Amino acid sequence: PAPRKTNSSLSWAEFLFFKIFCKKTFFEHNSRNIIFLMQLDFLDTTVMKTLDFFQNQKNLTPIQTENFRFPLVLGSGNAIETGKILFRKNPALFASESDAPDKIGLSEIQEIVVISASGSKHAPILIDLAHQHQKISHLISSTENSQASQKADHAFIFPKISEPYTYNTSTYFGYIYWSESQNYSLENVKNYLHDLEKILENVNFAKFSSFFVVIPNEFALLKNMIETKFIELFGRKVARDVATFEQIKHAMTVIPDDNELFIVFGNEKNQQFGKNQLNLPIFDHENYGPMMLGAYFVVGKIQRALPNYFMENIAAYCENSEYSISPLVIA
Scanning 56, 231, 239, 302, which has its CA 20 to 30 A from the CA of 295? Predict the structure, then answer.
């Protein structure tokens, strides 16, 4: 989609706030990147905006993962976790930017798939590395004309919404959704999230200092994605764990804590894991997209209830980064 424009102007008070707290972080190339911290959405709002956005997207071509010849799938953070979901039913190897050099030269590897929403940072480096080893390179991204898209042999560019840096909800959900879009309607997913919201209305997340999210075994590949979302939003201010019903059996609940809340998705056997437990339904047992959005939605509700660590620190984080990044990623 074309870049969004803004017609808003700054008052002197807003300008001073901007200069003091946000510095040059929000000034990247032009006025469309000028935002304020109070305009950043909570994660649950971004989830709902993502659904609204993709309901209006038509005729996108899904990624046919079965057509890749034993690829090495590469990505950083939740990008590589998304790759594991996309290629979970196909013969493939997976690596992050850290261990990619150890695997990219393997003779069994014929193609490289780099997953990067921005198409920057490590993505162009990984594409160059693929070419050095004479491998065919593919990019799955949400940014047109990025460094990586210009280098890759093939690029799959998906649409996205504007959302806070690190959220990557519309980006990664988009890749997953278009691999399973024939399986469900987004209107039904929205109804599922509305049902979750009704359950969560009476939950006081602020009473708890730690959270343990339990997910069905069939969604094991979401474990790291949910954990990463907690880390991005709360750092070490909030204790968190994520496990499947099978993983939690391995001595993960030896030490009880009265301030811990277990958030259990799809607890069909009514298992009890702790003193404080919230049982939540799942959309289905097969599709990763709705489960991802459901988990993110709940994390967003926790974000609303606790001190806003993310909003308080994201501007400084962007300002001090070695990369040119902004608290709001513009579509």
Answer: 56
Q: Which two tokens stand for residue 314?
A: 């994201």
151-158, long-range: CB within 8 Å, 24+ apart, which pairs?
151/124, 151/127, 152/114, 152/127, 156/61, 156/63, 158/60
CA distance 116 to 127: 11
Cα of first residue to Cα of last residue in the chain, in angstroms, is 7
Q: How far apart are CA 126 and CA 148, in angstroms?
A: 9
Nearest in space to 115 (alpha carbons), one of 147, 142, 87, 79: 79
Q: How far apart are CA 149 and CA 138, in angstroms?
A: 9
Helix (H, G, I), strand (E, B), or coil: what is residue 304?
A: helix
| DSSP tag of 259 | T
| Model pTM score | 0.88
pLDDT (tens digit per residue) in 178-227: 999 889 999 999 999 999 999 999 999 999 999 999 999 999 999 999 99
